[in-house]
Backbone:
């Protein structure tokens, strides 16, 4: 089997009301989709994470990485990954957009391998014996206190057993005191049997994160996510050692080398790689080995990414060791449902993994065209 073509499509979808969270407002969801076709007519699809300007990863995929993999066999996915990484590593590009471009390509390659084998991707990766995975409801965004409580109760009524909420408010929105008041009100409203995760989106410094966590230590919090900016490794170390709530991070991290640093500093309990950033399935799987070796927990990130990434993460969750939980995104996301059939629905805290070959759901081209940038 040989790769014959690599094509990118750029998507963007804007919400009527932007989402508000720790790093500001988020109005427009974007993604770069990568479609790879082989000489025996199989097409695989992957996604590069995009927060601004999908043109960047499209250019990296088409101009820099496509020449590396054209004519090659997708069954050599691990070697192709290393060759793509090596292309620019020595030139200083060992994180960032190059990694995100590799992620889209690698995801598409494994989709091809699944389709060629007639198996879902998670089984081609070496399935972990799960055809459904535990999940949590993500996320409650900033609103006033009664509305956040009402949203939490709505998610419990919908059958979720775990909920993530955003904290990290600016001073204008009430700051850390409002954060603490919201968490306590929601714990009170949902009772003791619901898992509550907190996501700061890097809005605190270490001292604030430690102070807030200590005020919430009696509230049985499952994790505190991205308490400080991703580059502040000293801050992560301080937060982990300075309070008792487990620390989660990783949606902003690239590959095994980024996670290695957080692990060797004992700065993290739960790793949250995003398949569309960490290096696709190959990157996500390599991080899985690190998680396993250090007896940590794995909780794949989805969030503002488009549906291919959400779907691919579900296969990651079904294949990695030490899985903790999958992020099921219920908040508005115009690019989540891009398929000819509904995205898998969670029930009572678990979500099924599609069983058809490859990623298991086909893109609906009418929906894609609706969001496609030209
Ligand atoms: Mg997050």
Residues:
């Amino acid at each position: 089997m040989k790769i014959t073509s690599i094509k990118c499509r750029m998507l963007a979808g804007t919400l009527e009301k932007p989402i508000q969270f720790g790093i500001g407002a988020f109005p427009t969801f974007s993604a770069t989709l990568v479609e790879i076709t082989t000489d025996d007519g199989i097409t695989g699809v992957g996604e590069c994470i995009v927060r601004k300007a999908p043109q960047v990863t499209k250019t990296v995929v088409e101009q820099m990485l496509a020449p590396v993999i054209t004519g090659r066999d997708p069954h050599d996915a691990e070697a192709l990954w290393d060759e793509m990484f090596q292309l620019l590593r020595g030139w200083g590009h060992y994180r960032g957009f190059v990694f995100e471009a590799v992620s889209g390509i690698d995801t598409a390659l494994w989709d091809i391998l699944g389709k060629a084998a007639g198996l879902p991707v998670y089984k081609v990766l070496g399935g972990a014996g799960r055809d459904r995975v535990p999940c949590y409801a993500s996320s409650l965004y900033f609103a006033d206190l009664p509305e956040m409580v009402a949203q939490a109760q709505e998610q419990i009524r919908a059958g979720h057993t775990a909920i993530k909420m955003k904290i990290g408010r600016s001073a204008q929105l009430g700051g850390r005191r409002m954060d603490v008041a919201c968490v306590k009100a929601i714990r009170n409203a949902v009772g003791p049997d619901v898992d509550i995760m907190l996501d700061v989106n890097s809005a605190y410094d270490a001292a604030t994160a430690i102070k807030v966590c200590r005020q919430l230590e009696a509230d049985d919090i499952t994790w505190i996510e991205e308490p400080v900016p991703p580059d502040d490794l000293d801050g992560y170390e301080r937060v982990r050692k300075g309070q008792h709530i487990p620390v989660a991070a990783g949606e902003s991290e690239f590959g095994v080398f980024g996670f290695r640093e957080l692990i060797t500093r004992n700065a993290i309990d739960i790793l949250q790689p995003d398949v569309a950033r960490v290096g696709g399935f190959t990157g996500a799987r390599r991080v899985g080995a690190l998680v396993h070796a250090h007896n940590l927990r794995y909780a794949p990130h989805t969030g503002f990414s488009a549906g291919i990434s959400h779907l691919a993460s579900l296969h990651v969750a079904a294949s990695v060791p030490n899985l903790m939980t999958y992020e099921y995104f219920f908040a508005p996301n115009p690019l989540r449902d891009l398929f000819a059939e509904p995205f898998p629905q969670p029930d009572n805290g678990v979500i099924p993994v599609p069983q058809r070959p490859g990623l298991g759901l086909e893109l609906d081209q009418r929906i894609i065209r609706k969001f496609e940038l030209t």
